[in-house]
Amino acid sequence: MSDPSVRGLDDVEVVVPTVGRPTLRALLASLAASNGPRPRAITVVDDRRTIEGPLADAHGLGWVADRVRFVRGTAAGPASARNVGWRLARASWISFLDDDVTVAPEWLDALARDLRDADPGTAGVQGRIVVPVPRGRKPTDWERNVAGLERAAWATADMAYRREVLQQLGGFDERFRHAYREDADLALRVLDCGHELTLGRRVVIHPVRPAGRAVSVRLQRGNADDVLMRALHGPDWRKRADAPPGRFRRHAAIVVGAAAAVTGSLARSRALALGGAALWSAGTAELAASRVRPGPRNPAEVATMVATSALLPFAAVAHRARGAVTLRRRLHDTLRAPQPRMAGPITSAVLFDRDGTLVVDVPYNGDPERVVLAPGAADALARLRNAGISLAVVSNQSGVARGLITMRQVEAVNARLDRVAGPFASFCYCPHDDSDGCTCRKPAPGLVREAARRLGVPPSRCVVIGDTGADVDAGRAAGARTILVPNERTRIEEIDDAPEVASDLAHAVDLALSPRAVGGVGRWRPAGRRGARASASAGGSAP
Is 355 a catalytic residue? Predict the structure, then answer.
């Protein structure tokens, strides 16, 4: 039975995490050239640690330029970036693509067919990955490594999931900080819930990008994530995830041999030293030969294989040990662990926007005497405190970056608010403006996540209350519940896009203290707001 809810791709959004690779432009261009229905939106999540230049734009790419949006991630890895992207989406299906692939000419048509043919019990549909290999010679070790993606199960280079399932499971596990195992972890959790995952017909091309000679050594960091996978999914996780067995036991034997050789030499035990050296050298030689044999066997490749084979076992064991040492901390990292959606979620903390929400908006206010509580703010805060809810303030303060106010003035205004309406557990504010490319300025999720961290509460148990779309998007991207309280500066499209809308702060508290509506959300629309208003002024509540 096919999914009758899929009509073209109107209920599908594409999410692309990126670290700024130049291949992003090629991906967007291939989407623009692909035949078939068009997705509702394309969200590119900029997960670069530092902003050293603009991302590849979509100028001249037709419909893609009209539907793509670029949002800031938290520079915490692809799992986090994908979570930011799908949490901002409103479609029923989320199609994840990596920024180093290109889609086939019929990809859009094939995606529509794959999702239309999915049974109601199917939670995800994987695309087929093709890795072009050079003709006329055997592939190198690195090329074979990348070509392994053609056989990888549930790789998010091209994977579509139902948004409802992502919400149910809390999305990707952000404790996997690298592009490794986070896709297998999500797939196993999906399967454990009784859902199905299927292989579709659409195709993406994954070229072999250039890599240094030590790339195989750097990739051994994935051994730390294998420790977490075993702890989360049991000793048979490789079989269930259709992952190859690997060579860790052989790597460990080589390291044991090296240790025995060194120990025997220091202890002047000839037998121990010779036995350890024999195991060490024989294991290293076997590893190098196994990597040289299927390759081109030219001098450069052979030299690279010999040199890196001497290092690989030690890197693998070191990273496995690091994974074991950090396992307890990672298992208890509730802020990065996925937070499954609960029926009737309990609110543990409410994070308020400041200007235009808790206080009357005074553009770039640095004077504590001009702090005036918004109507109903005192009663709303008292109700939340009486309910045992932790309270914090999350606020954009770009006036600092623009030289209009100082950080000391911002903190003085916060202190005044804390005296007249506090106590608040924390004040988190962003002193940057748009040009800084930070991860804290709303609509990026950084402020919300930082406030949740300070309060010791998972973002999924937080409610963000604010007056702009930036407040809403920051909360959604962090995985929090969001409630918009519009004022005269709130644009009509921000009201339409908000998951929950309250008429005032008292109504917002009513919603925050009640379970999230099943099958719908709280809605309120101010009378007479028919046309879209102009954007908020430079002194608006999200400057």
Answer: yes
